[in-house]
Fold each of these.
Amino acid sequence: MVTQHEHKDFRPLDHLAIIMDGNGRWAKQKNLPRIAGHQQGVEAVTRIVDACIRHNIRVLSLFAFSSENWGRPQQEVNALMELLLHFLATQRQKMLDGGIRLRVIGDVSRLSGPVQQALDEAQQVTSKGQTLTLVLALSYGGRDEIMRAARQIAKSVSRGELDPDQLDNKQFSTFLDTGDIPEPDLLIRTSGEMRISNFLLWQSAYAELYFTDVLWPDFDADELQKAIDDYLRRKRRFGLTDDQLSQQCQEEIND
Ligand code: IPE
Ligand code: IPE
Ligand code: MG
């Protein structure tokens, strides 16, 4: 296996974000109930967490439940919440042993009391993890997150704590759920859909996008390797010209 640091044209991949899609279609293809697809989706999560650690990825953000997913049939929502509770209980020791720090983003106030408690507890006990930050987006929507940040900023201005003329991108970012988490370098979406579906809207401004037809329950270390290889071949310009980038690179080598 080629890890990112062994790749000859090394470019850091610190933060990987994934829209885990296709659980329902995976189940349908096998004549199974949708929840069986979600169960296999959890297996894929544990595989990809391990693979990310092997690749020295620092942050893995997973879109697990969107603000729009609340509109799904109640039975499916309940089953997803049960799976989440089961995941937290069974992965607890593994997270502690592996140095995994859990962080939740999204409007957690909409989650049930027991789910909120389990998430609080898991975040607290894993807070010292140094190897990988696992960001779970739950009851999460990018627009909702930006709107909540705007509301906080407005309150702060009205209390006289913040000068609106001083507000810049950097400070705005601190009001988002992601706070001090770096922006995603690579955003993967499985299952062939080519849309963002309200995930990390602000943070993905310059993320590299990778789409694959593979359904999430079938996503594995080999598929991740393909995405990383693809990412490592990309040229990230951030709005600059190739000449400027070469110059920056030369300056970094000289430093
Ligand atoms: C993604 O799989 C998981 C969640 C959104 C919770 P889906 O459940 O959206 O699967 P498809 O898109 O119906 O196949
Ligand atoms: C996005 O998948 C949300 C998650 C992966 C949790 P959806 O299946 O809900 O997105 P759409 O409806 O296809 O855009
Ligand atoms: Mg879907």
Amino acid sequence: MAQLFYDSDADLNLLSGKTIAIIGYGSQGHAHALNLKDSGIDVVVGLYEGSRSASKAIADGLQVLTVAKAAEKADWIMVLLPDEFQKEVYASEIAPNLSPGKVLSFAHGFNIRFGLIQPPEFVDVVMIAPKGPGHTVRWEYQNGQGVPALFAIEQDASGQARALAMSYAKGIGGTRAGILETNFKEETETDLFGEQAVLCGGLSELVKAGFETLVDAGYQPELAYFECLHEVKLIVDLMVKGGLTAMRDSISNTAEYGDYVSGPRLITNETKAEMKKILADIQDGTFAQNFVRECESGKPEMKRIRARDAEHPIEKVGTGLRSMFSWLKTD
Ligand code: NAD
Ligand code: MG
């Protein structure tokens, strides 16, 4: 079993006297900045002029500077911009402000793994990647808990990079839940594969195909919505809590038998062969190259598919139904 590290394994004092620049104040940025600040660490936020996030950060009691000024002032620079903007902002505003002894860090390995950012040898390069959305990272911290995180060391110029990364993970509450060591290659490739094959790509298509099959056969869309989308969360909660066995303990014997005989008819050797190709595209950089090209041309495919799927009947039915669920908080 891989080892998890907790609060007692990490030393927050390694960050005392240091200033941490959080670059970007979105989902992860606001959570890291506020958790570190509440842990007693000096934080500044770096944003581009005119960023809509600036007023939020100021209202949260943080000092906001340009990215270049924040990078210049800080001992530690945490890059929490969308992955597709990191290369350019790094080159123009961060790289010129790096000097020996500074730490450059990320919450996802994409830009380092695919060589889009190539830091100088004299800085530490580390990753602290919470395994949850930023809002959960903030919420759990405020409740005295934390979200588990991965940490990784790409470059150890100071000889202290590992202890420093663990210290940062403690500052954002990660060691309250447990942190696991990885490397940039493993984190990037497994993260991309998980979201493409299972969590986002696989699941969205599975839900849509199930819904379409029922509606095409003449069943009410509202029932199809409940069966193929709404109940996903109920089953996933059981799986997360106790694994497949506990989930199967909770469902009826009828559902369990159906699970065993029908699941393998959908996820076949052909599906697994395709998964391997998806993984190969991630590993050899094909996916990264396609994503970079898509972003450079203004994201035409992403916009087209986003608009198309927003018009899918499951979205229309869902909007209507969710507005009637008094117990579903809409925020
Ligand atoms: P986000 O889109 O929520 O926030 C991005 C922030 O960057 C915003 O404040 C935005 O105003 C700012 N920004 C955008 N372009 C900029 C520019 N050119 N110059 C300066 N600021 C700019 O991003 P996020 O989802 O928090 O992702 C940040 C990083 O964290 C990514 O590397 C991502 O892979 C990683 N990550 C995200 C999550 C998550 O749950 N969202 C989880 C783990 C890791
Ligand atoms: Mg992920």
